[in-house]
Design brief:
Length: 270
């Protein structure tokens, strides 16, 4: 019920409600406990529920274990939000490494630019793209967005809870763009809701060709994709399938999984 009410609000309305809801906590935290400088106020974060620091560290550790990321790597963080993945990389990358994050929401980018000033190899960029969950004011769609980066520029591309809020043509375009900017042998680490025939579909009751929606009013609220479609599309683009990890949205056994969402790791062949 609360989730339905939440999606009735505009993106700005959701942001205001979150700031008000967490205001007492953020005020207490500011006065009584000194937070780490790279952890934003809880009311400003829009990267989902859970502990900002612990989840960021958990993802970083899994990325470290499953990809060939190094302290000198060049990282592209798509949908970087307000720095949940940037934070652990800030403590890991050397000055020879590079982190670039972009997002369609401007205030998270502004916060990161202000708080990562002492990390000169960290760059945060805002590209306003239309999305009915996050940004209604933009005119350009993610389906036509060309990444402003060179071919073969990055050692790793990360997308946490990005494809889960995108429509099919947008996902296909991003997979193509990511392939272009990855170096040969590099990895794309992305979360999805990936469905198969035996999965519980109750979270995504509205079915279309190769994908399902959680909410018809806000189509980008949560989007699930047929796993076979994503793997076939990735193969056609040129990726080599690498690894997948189920999320606990399927099993409800949180301790057995890395994240609520599924994780798919794709490799660009050497």
């Amino acid at each position: 019920m609360l989730r339905r009410l939440y999606f009735i609000l505009s993106p700005l309305g959701r942001r205001i409600v979150r700031r008000i809801y967490y205001l007492p906590f953020d005020c207490f935290n500011r006065v009584v406990r000194k937070s780490e400088s790279l952890i934003p106020p809880k009311g400003m974060s829009y990267v989902g529920s859970g502990n900002f620091k612990l989840l960021g560290d958990k993802f970083f550790n899994h990325i470290f274990e499953t990809t060939k990321v190094s302290e000198n790597s060049k990282i592209l963080d798509i949908g970087c939000g307000i720095g949940r993945i940037a934070r652990p990389f800030a403590y890991y990358l050397t000055k020879s490494g590079k982190y670039v994050g972009f997002d369609i929401i401007d205030y998270g980018i502004r916060w990161c630019k202000k708080n990562y000033k002492k990390y000169p190899n960290f760059y945060f960029e805002h590209y306003p793209l239309k999305n009915d969950l996050y940004n209604l004011s933009a005119n350009k769609s993610a389906s036509e967005f060309v990444f402003p980066y060179s071919n073969n520029e990055f050692d790793l591309v990360v997308l946490i809870s990005v494809f889960t809020h995108m429509q099919k043509q947008e996902v296909v375009n991003y997979l193509n763009q990511i392939y272009r900017v990855l170096q040969p042998g590099a990895y794309c680490y992305a979360t999805f809701f990936l469905t198969e025939s035996n999965d519980n579909q109750s979270l995504f009751p509205y079915n279309f060709e190769n994908y399902s929606l959680h909410n018809l009013k806000v189509k980008n609220a949560n989007v699930a994709y047929d796993k076979g479609f994503i793997l076939k599309t990735s193969e056609e683009i040129g990726y080599k399938f690498y690894q997948s990890f189920d999320g606990w949205w399927k099993t409800e056994h949180k301790a057995d999984n890395v994240d609520f969402q599924d994780i798919l790791i794709l490799q660009k062949p050497k």
